[in-house]
Design a protein that fits this description.
Layout: H1 8-18, H2 23-44, E1 46-49, E2 53-60, E3 63-66, E4 73-76, E5 79-86, H3 88-94
């Protein structure tokens, strides 16, 4: 069975212990990084977290799709979505490539 992902409080505790900070300070840093990523992605269209990846705004075109229950053709409107592009170094550290 897979291990559960870390919660925010576990991440805060890890950073607080690693860098000798209070949990309140570590939590504030994490919140500020998240707020910065959101505001910069809205403003500039992308935000890079060095070594981890890049948040990017992507505009999707309108297209035709199908209702899976009835098979009826439906029009899917254009929309803007946020994607996370994982950095190559991060990807290779987690899942090594074939040799």
């Amino acid at each position: 069975m897979a291990k559960k992902p870390m919660t925010k409080s576990q991440i805060v505790s890890h950073f607080a212990g690693k860098f000798e900070l209070t949990k309140k300070t570590a939590s504030g840093i994490i919140d500020e990084v998240a707020a910065l990523a959101i505001s910069e992605t809205k403003k500039a269209g992308s935000f890079t977290l060095p070594g981890i990846g890049k948040l990017v705004l992507v505009k999707r075109k309108a297209r035709m799709g199908r209702n899976p229950a009835t098979g009826e053709a439906i029009k899917i409107p254009a929309k803007t979505v946020v994607k996370m592009r994982v950095a190559k170094a991060c990807k290779e550290a987690i899942v090594p490539g074939r040799k």
